[in-house]
Specification:
Elements: H1 2-6, H2 17-21, E1 27-31, E2 37-41, H3 51-55, E3 70-76, H4 79-84, H5 90-100, E4 104-110, E5 116-121, H6 143-152, E6 157-161, H7 163-175, E7 183-188, H8 196-210, E8 214-221, E9 233-238, E10 243-246, H9 252-258, E11 281-285, E12 303-307, H10 310-318, E13 323-328, H11 330-335, H12 350-356, H13 362-369, H14 374-388
The structure holds flavin-adenine dinucleotide.
């Protein structure tokens, strides 16, 4: 609620819980000039009930303590699933198990209009659209009321999303007096999100560049080199059936995302970048745990699974047959990536990028800003030169 009170953008994750809970419908989500969604209040209709303040996940406190975590590296035994998933396809095993048990599972899909939104899945086949991370903030506005309604009808629900989205939904359901006994949360580790609007601009410029419409876009493509490619690449399929593989060194969206050039301001101060967990299960890549994976084929990726609640641990137990699993020390799992202890840092040209975007194309604005500023480049070059030519010495690695 800090944003509605003081307009501080770095304290608003844009989850839309405040707009969803408002009984008088006086809050709507509006894009700012960078394209991120923020709540906007119609003061004339406001009844000062304070619910928008209470529901905000910014002050979320009910974290699970890290001491209770059980951690595993997991790879789905079905290689085709691993290929279609971001990491090791652990999410698919969990999702299939849950829908098989009658749960309605909510996750993020990239729909046919290339918009990222949260939708429900009722059977295993419907979970396929949740596979692969979409590096765009998803629209989960329709989920809040739907999930509350389903819980009141005694349906069992699993929600998968970013940590801030899980916390927002928990706060919303608490205020709606919904029991969370039949609710399970799966979160991914998150290094931040760009807005949908930016992805739209990029898609439109890319379509112009190639002179044809894009029908499908897939982050974390693994097919670039018969499965041995860069798993941080992407793949787009055009309406005429042709396709293009995009690499993070060249493609402006991937380059900008991985360099943290256009993340939401609140991601730089994320309250969930900590060891305590929000969800019953947290999923991530196996980055930083390569040694623990000895003996596993991780060429197509592996998932780190951190289960913290009894519900989460039981679910992991139930999918053990579907996964190749290796237990990992929880402290090692938690310290493998910095986002479990501090938020991502924003690229120093972030603001310059957004102001340039008002006049230039997305491609140009990324190209001009994704590299370090000149002063930093000079510093890096000087440090390199010092290493190669220490004072009075000869060039390292040079001929004697
Ligand atoms: C924006 C974002 C940033 C991430 N950053 C990191 C990181 O820095 N380090 C790391 O180790 N892992 C990160 N992940 C998680 C990681 O990429 C994988 O999602 C995770 O390892 C699970 O992979 P999987 O193969 O088991 O499942 P997959 O089947 O690939 O599962 C994808 C899951 O992610 C959810 N999802 C996809 N896109 C979104 C979205 N836009 N918003 C909300 N939920 C979404 C789906 O609902 C599904 O639950 C990030 C994911 C996202 C979406």
């Amino acid at each position: 609620m800090a944003f509605l009170k003081d307009g501080k953008k770095n304290k608003c994750c844009g989850c839309s819980a405040c707009a969803s809970i408002c009984p008088s419908g006086c809050i709507s989500m509006r894009e700012d000039e960078e394209g991120f969604l923020y709540p906007q209040l119609n003061k004339d209709k406001c009844i000062s009930c304070g619910l928008c303040e209470k529901v905000c996940p910014e002050g979320y406190k009910e974290f699970y303590k890290p001491e209770g975590i059980e951690a595993y590296i997991g790879i789905n035994k079905d290689r085709a699933v691993v290929e279609k998933s971001t990491s090791g396809g652990a999410f698919s095993a969990l999702c299939d198990q849950l829908t098989g048990r009658g749960y309605v599972v909510y996750g993020a899909e990239l729909d046919e209009k290339l918009k990222v939104r949260h939708i429900p899945a009722h059977k295993p086949a419907e979970c396929e659209k949740f596979r692969k991370s979409k590096y765009v903030q998803s629209d989960m506005s329709s989920c809040f009321a739907d999930i509350a309604k389903l819980l009141k009808e005694d349906k069992r629900i699993a929600f998968s999303g970013l940590p801030c989205q899980c916390a927002a939904l928990k706060e919303y359901l608490k205020l709606k007096n919904c029991s969370c006994d039949d609710l399970l949360f799966i979160s991914v580790l998150c290094r931040g999100v760009p807005p949908q609007k930016l992805f739209d601009i990029y898609i439109s410029e890319t379509e112009k560049k190639y002179g044809k419409k894009i029908s499908t876009y897939e982050f974390r493509n693994k097919r670039s080199d018969h499965g041995k490619g860069d798993i941080r690449s992407a793949r787009m399929i055009f309406e005429d059936g042709s396709e293009k593989i995009l690499f993070k060194e060249e493609d402006p969206y991937l380059k900008g995302y991985y360099k943290r050039l256009f993340l939401r301001p609140s991601c730089g101060e994320c309250s969930f970048a900590r060891k305590e967990r929000v969800a019953d299960i947290t999923l991530s890549d196996h980055w930083g745990l390569e040694e623990e994976c000895a003996g596993l084929d991780v060429s197509l990726g592996a998932s780190l699974i951190m289960a913290v609640s009894n519900k989460g641990k039981e679910l992991v137990e139930d999918v053990k047959e579907e996964l190749m699993l290796i237990a990992v020390d929880k402290d090692k799992a938690l310290s493998a990536q910095t986002i479990t202890s501090k938020p991502v840092y924003m690229h120093e040209n972030r603001d310059r990028f957004f102001s340039m975007l008002k006049k230039k194309s997305f491609y140009e604005a990324v190209e001009k800003n994704a590299r370090p500023p000149l002063r930093r480049m000079i510093r890096i070059l000087m440090q390199e030169a010092k290493k190669r030519f220490p004072a009075g010495g000869k060039a390292k690695g040079g001929r004697k």
